[in-house]
Amino acid sequence: MADIYKLRERSPETEKITINVGYVDLGHIDLLVREGFYSNRSDFIRTAIRNQLGAHSDAVKQSIVRNTLELGLRHYSRDDLEAVKAAGGKLRIHVLGLASIADDVTPELARETIESLTVLGALQASKSVKAALHDRIF
């Protein structure tokens, strides 16, 4: 009989958000979808967001540098935090994108090693770690 291995769950590459749109605007979106300009409402909204981000790209780049933000995905493993603890250090985490803290990180280790946490985007961590850091999340 073959061995069965559990695959590591893949992190989602998107975050679901909810927006309120006026009926007339929604009608315009539906018309553009029906006419084939976009495949669905979500496609229209993602395109609109990308266009606005492109229009403001210089301001975004300047703000990233000014706020010393890491751009993209930043994962903190238990080993990473244990090394910070061993060195007597504290982390000031600033991420634009996705910051994730490994599931095997205890709330105690997180509090001992993370001084502050600023995430523009999404934070993936256990509920207990988020609760332990609640006063340090900005």
Automatic annotation (TrEMBL):
CDD domains: RHH_NikR_HicB-like (cd22231). Pfam families: RHH_8 (PF17723). It comes from the Bacteria. It comes from Methylocystis borbori. InterPro entries: Arc_rbn_hlx_hlx (IPR013321), RHH_8 (IPR041088), Ribbon_hlx_hlx (IPR010985). This is CopG family transcriptional regulator.
